[in-house]
Amino acid sequence: MTVYARVIGTGGYLPAEIKTNEDISKTVDTSDSWIFERTGITSRRIAAAHETASSMAEIAARQAIEMAAIAAEEIDLIIVATGTPDNVYPSTGCMLQHRLGIKKCVAFDIQAACSGSIFGLDMANQYIKSGAAKTVLVVGAEICSRIVDWTDRGTCILFGDGAGAVLLQAAEQEGILSTHIHSDGRFEDLLKCPNPQALGEPDVAGYISMKGNEVFKVAVNTLGRIVDETLAANNMQKSDIDWLVPHQANIRIIAATAKKLKMSMDHVVVTLQEQGNTSSASVLLAFNEAVRDGRIQRGHVVLLEAFGAGFTWGSALIRY
Ligand code: COA
Which residue among 124, 169, 203, 274 has the highest number of C-beta atoms inside a 10 angstrom radius? Predict the structure, then answer.
């Protein structure tokens, strides 16, 4: 019997504060029209002072657990993808385990920047297919606003905060059909966020820096290739995909991937207009939104994909 990792619940959380392009244009030399035309973003959410990656992860996770109608104790593995953990250690995964009141399960973090949730889905799939775990919670949670340099107009316009969650369980019915993940560590200088304390360089700013134009080109080409790889691995045609759920970095990158799939934008889940790029949370937030509003229905084939610092990139093909 083939065992699949089947989606049984999804969740998402966005902080209350809305920061518009107009707000940003009061502090750096930019404009609403420039940001919207180049990125598709009009506003993003900003976490309150008391919020952290683990507090946002808890809300998203509880929603997914409620939708799945399982007891939290049934979860035997928690994987949290984050580049903005509450602490270096304990992991945000362990903090989430405690917040959910789960005494016996394995929990840890992974760090693959904006591809984090896809890497998390890949790991969850491997654990479930091998029989090592039965019920796995994957969460992407990010407080990008705290690692953004709000004086750098090239990056501060892009990012937002939030958390997305998905619960997967071993099942005979189809679920994750395949996952594909990749890394290429040569591109540190194009996109990074240093950790000054660990580097022993306290004067280095621990903020995101990016050569946006160069990242853009690599992202478009790489995501085109991952679409081909995913379709070929599943012996599927472009027309077999019902929904594209892309990482929400830039509407022009998303549109290029949709074009590659010959897919109308009506079948692409886009959340970035009011969320910006929430890094590892973005794909799961978008997936949750389209599941909850009924666009994604049982039986639909959904292609999730992401690209991020590292570089890292990947996809997950799911029959919902
Ligand atoms: N407002 C106004 N002007 C801005 C600006 C802003 N917020 N940011 C940059 N500019 C200026 C630049 O200084 C440059 O001016 P110059 O020509 O006088 O030097 C000009 O706009 C063009 O800059 P460029 O960086 O080439 O713009 P772009 O079209 O590439 O758009 C990004 C910039 C960041 C929106 C775009 O490159 C992007 O989205 N890149 C990918 C980002 C990404 O996906 N990152 C995360 C991966 S997970």
Answer: 124
**Nearest CA owner, ligand 1 atom 11:** 154
- What Rg value do the Cα atoms of the chain yield, rounded? 18
Please choose from 38, 280, 305 the residue to mutate so as to test ligand 1's pocket, defined by most ligand atoms within 8 A of CB.
Answer: 38
- Give the Å distances, CA to CA, from 258 to 137, 233, 239, 262, 319: 28, 19, 12, 6, 19
Centre of ligand 1 from the C-alpha of residue 238, in Å = 31
Same domain, 128 and 186: no
CA distance 247 to 192: 18
pLDDT tens digits, 145-166? 999 999 999 999 999 999 999 9
Name the nearest CA neighbour of 138 among 8, 42, 16.
8
Both 31 and 141 in one domain: the answer is yes
Task: Return the structure tokens found at 8.
Answer: 């049984």
The residue segments making up the domain with residue 60 are: 4-173
- The domain boundary, picked from 173, 204, 225, lies at 173
**Residue in the block written with tokens 């690692």:** 147
- Is pTM, for the whole model, over 0.70? yes
pLDDT tens digits along 106-119: 999 999 999 999 99
Contact 262, 228 (CB under 8 A): no
Q: Which of 153, 173, 193 finishes a domain?
A: 173
Nearest alpha carbon to residue 170 among 140, 126, 120: 126
For residue 208, name the pLDDT band (cuts at 50, 70, 90): very high
> How remote is the C-alpha of 319 from its chain's centroid?
19
Instruction: Supply the DSSP string of 168-190, one letter for each residue.
Output: EEEESS--EEEEEEEE-GGGTTT
| Domain count for the chain | 2
Q: Which residues are catalytic?
A: 114, 247, 277
